[in-house]
Amino acid sequence: MNPSKPIYLDYNATTPLTSEVIGAMLPFLEEHFGNPSSTHPYGQVTHKAVEKARAHVARLIQAKAEEIIFTSGGTESNNLAIRGLAKTLGGKGNHIITSAIEHPAVTEVCQVLANHGFEITTLPVDSCGKVSPSDLEAALKPDTILVSVMHANNEVGTIQPIKNLAALAHEAGALFHTDAAQSAGKLPVDVIALGVDLLSIAGHKLYAPKGVGALYIRKDVQLEKIIFGAGQEHGLRPGTENVLEIVGLGQAAQQAGRDLENNISHFETMRDRLQAGLEAALPPGSLRLNGHPVDRLPNTVNLSFKGVEANALLDEIQDGVAASAGAACHAGQVKISSVLSAMGVPIQWAKGTVRFSVGRMTTTAEIDQAVEIIIRAILKLQRKK
């Protein structure tokens, strides 16, 4: 990263483009502009590029190319999966199950459906942020049509037991959707092994551009479209394809699959070095890990600092380190994230919560420098108390 800029430890928020992704996109910015629906050579070049990208995305998650629909991102993918299925199966049942730690792209959709007569059950999580299969089993009913639980949480990194949850849903006759925005490219994601029927991907979480994503739809699953127009993307996502960004997503997916093992090792090394450095420099009992200590994203560490407010810490380190807060404090009021609240993180810890997420470009030198900056800021803030 640029040494004149803060050390970037917010890869779960968004990722930069890799040089390979930029290189793959450039010809479609400079030269190849044809509409993929056109039958002449200009259109055929872009059509082939879209289909090549579709194959790359499918390969990343062990799906078939025809099961991949390109969207504008994870939010649209979640909307199409949940709303599209609700419209298709609404005559069979009106019960949908989700969890208390989902992204707003899932929770807001469920709230809209609740306003239109659907029954929504929200499963609790334990103190590590995990959904219990027994809780899902108890919540399933004859009229349950869909269960939607994210693969890995964006804030604390906890990985859910998707295979077990999906099997329970199927035993009850329901379909299963998972939001894999944070896991694709960071974990092995195999739609067959997981047993999911629908899976959402966000391009800008795996080094592709913002504004592009994908939805895996198992071949036998029928969805009603939620956007209307022409017949692109098997009629489910009308509108001229965003070729430039689809090509970027395809290249990012190919790169992620190729480099997955090395990336996981690098992520874990950087994440653990950051956590260990902070733990070693602070007194015992002044630091709390949020999320599962083992079953978590290899690049994510969510920490609470005792006696420090998260927004004050981020303000103090903003010139040196970029990260995200788990709580916001304004005018004496503390607003804690819904994820931390669902996990039951005590307020005295929650208000000092910061998420650090490393990436492909993170270096050992950056981690060591970040530890120094963070510790110096914490000690300064604690002296002000």
What features would you describe in this structure?
With 385 residues, the protein is of the alpha/beta class. The protein has 2 domains: 7-14 and 259-384, Aspartate Aminotransferase, domain 1 (Alpha-Beta Complex); 19-256, Aspartate Aminotransferase, domain 2 (3-Layer(aba) Sandwich), CATH 3.40.640. Helix content is 41%, strand content 16%. The chain has helices at residues 19-30, 41-60, 74-89, 104-115, 133-139, 162-171, 191-194, 243-281, 310-317, 338-343, 347-350, 364-384; strands at 7-8, 68-71, 95-99, 119-123, 144-148, 175-179, 198-202, 213-217, 287-290, 300-305, 321-322, 324-325, 327-330, 333-336, 353-357. A 7-stranded mixed β-sheet has the order 2-8-7-6-5-3-4, with helices on both faces. The protein has a 4-stranded antiparallel β-sheet with strand order 9-10-15-12, covered by helices on one side. The radius of gyration is 22 Å and the shape is globular. The chain starts with 6 loop residues before the first strand and ends with a helix.
How is this structure best summarized?
With about 375 residues, this protein is an alpha/beta fold. The chain has helices at about 20-30, 40-60, 75-90, 105-115, 135-140, 160-170, 190-195, 245-280, 310-315, 340-345, 345-350, 365-385, and strands spanning about 5-10, 70, 95-100, 120-125, 145-150, 175-180, 200, 215, 285-290, 300-305, 320, 325, 325-330, 335, 355. It is built from twelve helices and 15 strands.
